[in-house]
Amino acid sequence: MRRSALLLFGMVTLPGVLAAQLVPGRDLLSFPLGLTSEAPALGTTAGFGLWNPASVLVPDGSRARFAVGTMSAPVDLAVTAQLATVAGRWRDGTTVAIGIAHAAVNDLLRTDSDPQSIGDEIQYATTLVSLMAARRLGPVTLGTALRVRSGRLDNISRHAVSVDVGVISRGLGPRDIRLAASSFLASAASNEHERAELLTAIDARLAGTDSLRTSRIGASYTAGDGLTRETFGYAAARWARLEGRVGAARTEAFGHTNWRGRLGVAFHHRGYVIGVAREEGAGNLSATYQFTLSSVVK
Question: Cα–Cα distance between 93 and 137 in angstroms, integer?
């Protein structure tokens, strides 16, 4: 959730905030972290496995993948995030990976009865560590993740454990239709610790028969109990080493609807993939920027 919402901390007490969010920082994971304007459930460009553990699969012919990413936002949002995933492929084709994602809000000032700040800044951050596995079974890739998330709000720190599953199906029909679905932060006691999201996506080839020269169109839907609901439509094209994607996301949250444009570009070269993406801000807020870098080891 955006910084403007976080400023409401000065209007409520800490116990009131924690009653709605027992593990602080869940809303910091509503940004499209590690994605190059992709549908979250189909976010395979960098292979972080954050939104769908099946996307962490190391491709055939490679032994490992390393991926890092960052998100930055201007001062009116002041949200930053960092991601990293290391994945290795076993001889039987199973990929095992570990990933970490951290997001925080900067410059949350502590005030009293006037705008003058007092004491240290309020800490608001979350860290998510994921142990993941993925395996391809014919045209279907299955994945699972054990996640531990910690959140901090001022001097209060709490933790939660979740188990997620995901699936990606490829090559359906003459249009090479891809289907994907996954859970995100699904806890056995989700009402008390985490609010699980369900992510779904579909895309299909519009033109081209070679994966290096093709265009695609797709859509995704994300829903969670008590969280935002997002519908995202996009078009993508790749020509040799260059890949581009453009789309629009419609988000419903707290009775409000926002539209945000997304634009992403990825450059492929000798096993390396560099991705840059931009997401428009809701209302008059500034845009956020994503950067990803991944490499496979043969």
Answer: 10
SS3 for 164?
Answer: strand
198 token code pair: 């369900």
Q: Would you give the DSSP letter of residue 271?
A: T
Phi then psi dihedrals of residue 187, to 5 deg: -110, 150
- Residue whose tokens read 């009131």: 16
Decide: pTM greater than 0.70: yes
Q: Distance between CA 186 and CA 147 in Å, rounded?
A: 9
Q: Where are the beta strands (DSSP E) in the chain?
A: 64-72, 79-89, 95-105, 124-137, 140-153, 156-172, 177-184, 197-210, 213-224, 229-239, 242-253, 256-269, 272-279, 288-297
Residue 226 token pair:
């008590």
Half-sphere exposure of residue 139: CA atoms within 13 angstroms, side-chain side: 10
pLDDT digits (tens, 9 = 90+) for 91-141: 999 999 999 999 999 877 666 555 555 556 788 999 999 999 999 999 999
Torsion angle in degrees (nearest 10) through CA of 295, 63, 50, 38: 50
Helix (H, G, I), strand (E, B) or coil at 267: strand
Q: What are the structural domains of the chain?
A: 3-297 (2.40.160.60)
